[in-house]
Amino acid sequence: MEVIYWVPYYEQIASDLGLDRDADMMASNILSELLAVNGRLHPKEEVLVELERLIEGRDVYVLGAGPDLEMELDRLIGEKRVGGTWTGLSTGKDVLISADGATSALLARSLVPQIIVTDLDGGVEDQVQCLSRGSLMVVHAHGDNINVLKKVVPRLFGSVHGTTQVDPAAGGGLENYGGFTDGDRAAFLAQHFKARSITLLGFNFNEVAPKIGEGGLRSESLDPEENEFKWKKLAWANILLGLITNPTVKIYSGEELMRF
What we know:
Blueprint (H helix, E strand, L loop, with lengths): L2 H15 L3 H17 L6 H12 L3 E5 L5 H12 E2 L2 E2 H5 L2 E6 L2 H6 L7 E4 L5 H9 L3 E6 L4 H7 L7 E5 L3 H4 L10 H11 L4 E5 L22 H18 L7 E3 L9
Helix pairs in contact: 1-11, 10-11
């Protein structure tokens, strides 16, 4: 999604969720600076070429951290295994993009996603482990994750790309492909780099779930305030994903995503 089309949606989301636009801008500047001074990261141009190579013309599976993820993931693994091997990953036909905590669910099943889209509030150590095993990480800046950006980004290495939900020119060196939550941003990333198909796993728009942490373990419960906030984010994710028309976004059951 072009930034000019994204901004009106961002303004509505910011108003609905009470986001601090100035804090989002500050986070973008901080992430940009942290990436620029980290000498262990590959140049942005190389990472963009790698993203294009991984996604263009491929069948992309975007894994969210919804309550059905583990069940759907185990089913997908069963369908894709031939002789004990995940045929998609071994042949390069399928691409797994994990949204933040979904990375831990994959790693617990001995699978490493090619791409991780994260704002670093899930199992960070699992995500860093995947980075060491060849994953490309897309790190997102927003007003509520400034402290974790400062703590984690200097530790990162290899293929890391920065994104923002405001004007990318504000931070410099970042991109804005559209989307708000890790899951829908992953789908917009796949669209931008011309995936052949986008299939969503772990996207239940009728139920919220606790976060997935290190080792693929979920927290026990959500407090009422967090629960309400998650419902609002889920509603916006549903709306935003409905904007992706090429390629058509489908949920794992094979149904087309509901359009608004």
